[in-house]
Amino acid sequence: MGEPTIGSLIDFPFRSVRQPRTLQQSRNPGTFMAKDPTSEFASPSATAVLTGTPETSGPFPGDTSFFGHPRGLSTLFFTEFWERFSYYGMRGILILFMTAAVAQGGLGMDAARAGAIYGLYTAFVYLTALPGGWLADRVFGQRRAVLIGGIIIAMGHFTMAIPAVTLALGELPPFYAGLVLIVLGTGLLKPNISTMVGSLYPEGGARRDAGFSIFYMGINMGAFLAPLVVGYLGEKVNWHVGFAVAGVGMVLGLIQYVVGGRHLQNVGRYAHIEGDDGGPQRRLFMAAGVAIGLIAVIALLTTTGMLSVQGLAAAGTYIIVLLSLGYFGYMFLAGGLDETERKRIAVIAILFIFSAIFWSGFEQAGSSLNLVAERLTDRNILGWEMPASWLQSVNPLFIIALAPVFAGIWISLARRNQEPSSPAKFSFGLVFLGLGFLVLVVATGLSGAGAQISPMWLVLTYLLHTIGELALSPVGLSTVTKLAPQRVVGQMMGVWFMSVSLGNLIAGQVAGFIETLPLPQLFGTVAAITIGAGLLLFLFVKPTRKLMGGVL
User: Fold this and answer.
1) Which residues contact 64 (CB under 8 A, 6 or more apart)?
2) 282 vs 451, which has greater pLDDT?
3) Number of domains in the chain
4) Residue at 536 is within a domain
């Protein structure tokens, strides 16, 4: 018997078969809380929500072998655990590596350029969820999309792990190539693994919500462990070793995914293909060609100095804003909406703005706050210096501890008909985010006097930010599914991700001012904007609720 080809390795055991269009499938959306916005789906299908396309559900109503849930949940739980380990591990050391001196193995960038790269990277991670869901639905099927995405992610990490001394091209080409690969792979994996979790529960209901809660714990466990392992190796041993270990984490997730694939039965195996068989493939090749061409042009412009990374980040910000304005304008003027639908779309547009503001502050955790941890924080413990990236584990630890508390609070308030509305929760989230930055105003003021600050200042900041995240993040997509007309809910989900992407781009650009502005002024401005936005939204909670037409 000959060696298997690459194609056969991808096809087995996740061979994608086109699903007949006559199957009846569920499309009832639900909600659950997740570490990052790309996972906030309780669907039945993340991709169905993104693209308006239904998915295949497997016959699992009697399977309770994994803590009362389908055994396939364990496969997806640990795959997501290791994928998040790889993502948050690399993210935890990314800006530290870029700003470290060349003599220390870093890239020697200033904060402005490093922050712009960081913002572009995290922004595109969220933007690629929409085409990733479309490709799974139309070409690959969720099963193969997750597998292919994981392989591409691992390739990206290992590309970044290649020491520069072995390359004639130098450090930057493999670094940028690695980031692009991780972005593309994450776009394929993230929305589709969430789709498959929802497909394990064709019966829907509370059991599905509980299953997503378990899945969400896997996200945060991976996010908690990653900085402790990858951060230590990257900062204390070698940056490239850290990137390599992040890649090893993704490989472990892939092995677990392949070995446990039999527990998934037919979930995610089918691609939904309309029309002739060659159509989706042609569209795939056309899209890939356009994407590769665009990346090549951008790479040429940036490497020749004709376009700076900071300029690219600023341009991306304007493009996202214009696309969002254009979409909402089209929906209002030519979207065929009735009066109630038009009002509800207006609420989504309002919350879009406040969502972008929230993420522009919150996502500074991996950029400006990471630099504060490295440069201004006393991390000495009995003569040993703790890695700065270890503080990136504080947020997921707080989420694991506080998520059940918040769930209990909302349930208790709902029983008494006192649960806050979605706009009210948004305002709370923004205010707590701003309070976290006020803590930093005091802390960095102390560091300006020549003393390093205690890490407890950052711990307190992350506590307040986590409270804000739990008040706002799980609410966003849930609100969109309730407010958007069913015929355009997929489009609205894609647009909603643009708010998260926009926030990430702005966060990276704000982090660039850490070397040029006094930190109390920088963080004070962020605090004023986020608290002011939260209070402004709170003042308009009642009129906003009227526009929602009875939706809480």
Assistant:
1) 70
2) 451
3) 2
4) yes
Comparing C-alpha atoms, which of 453, 454, 495 is closest to residue 476?
495
* C-beta neighbour count of 62 within 10 angstroms: 7
Q: 211 is in which domain, residue-wise?
A: 71-269
Residues 6+ apart with CB under 8 A from 298: 307, 312
pLDDT at 517: 92
Residues 191 and 338 in one domain: no
Q: What is the pLDDT of residue 460?
A: 97
Tokens of 347: 């609420």
Q: Give the total residue count for the chain.
A: 552
* Angle at which helices 339-362 and 489-511 cross, to 10°: 30
Q: CA angle at residue 127 from 75 to 112, to 5 degrees? A: 115
Contact 154/188 with Cβ under 8 angstroms? no
Query: Between 446 and 353, where is the model more confident?
Result: 353
Same domain, 200 and 95: yes
Distance, CA of 195 to CA of 322 (rounded, Å): 30
Structure tokens at 458: 């950052």
Assess contact for 142 and 192: CB atoms under 8 A: yes
Cα–Cα distance for residue pair 505/80, rounded to 1 Å: 25
| Kind and range of the H or E run holding 381 | strand 380-381
Q: Please indicate, yes or no, if residue 447 is contained in any of the structural domains.
A: yes
- Which of 222, 511, 506 lies closest to 365 in space, CA to CA? 511
Please report whether residue 240 resides in a domain: yes
Residue 18 parent element (H or E): strand 17-18
Residue 141 DSSP code: -
The answer to whether the beta carbons of residues 112 and 118 sit under 8 Å apart is no
Average pLDDT over every residue of 120-135? 87
The residue written with tokens 């590769």 in the block is 292
Q: How far apart are CA 414 and CA 514, in angstroms?
A: 43
CATH of the domain at 490: 1.20.1250.20
Decide if 319 is inside a domain. yes
If asked whether residues 341 and 481 sit together in one domain, one would say yes
Residues 182 and 328 in one domain: no
Based on the fold, state whether residues 192 and 95 are members of the same structural domain: yes
**Predicted TM-score (pTM) of this structure:** 0.83
Are the C-beta atoms of 76 and 215 separated by less than 8 Å?
yes
Give the separation between CA 355 and CA 349, rounded to whole angstroms. 10
Q: How many CB atoms are closer than 10 A to CB 250? A: 31
Q: What are the residues facing 380 on neighbouring strands?
A: 385
- For 419, what's the count of Cα atoms within 13 Å in the CB-facing half-sphere? 17
Cis peptide before 4 (omega within 30 of 0): no
Phi, psi (5° rounding) for residue 518?
-60, 135
The three-class DSSP label of residue 379 is coil
Q: How many CB atoms lie within 10 A of CB 24?
A: 5
Dihedral angle sign, alpha carbons of residues 133, 135, 140, 144: negative
Separation CA 365–CA 346 (nearest Å):
30
Nearest to 96 by CA among 365, 422, 440, 297: 365
Helix, coil or strand: residue 548: coil
- Residue 336 in this model has a pLDDT that exceeds 80: yes
Separation CA 360–CA 266 (nearest Å): 40
Same domain (yes/no): 255, 325: no
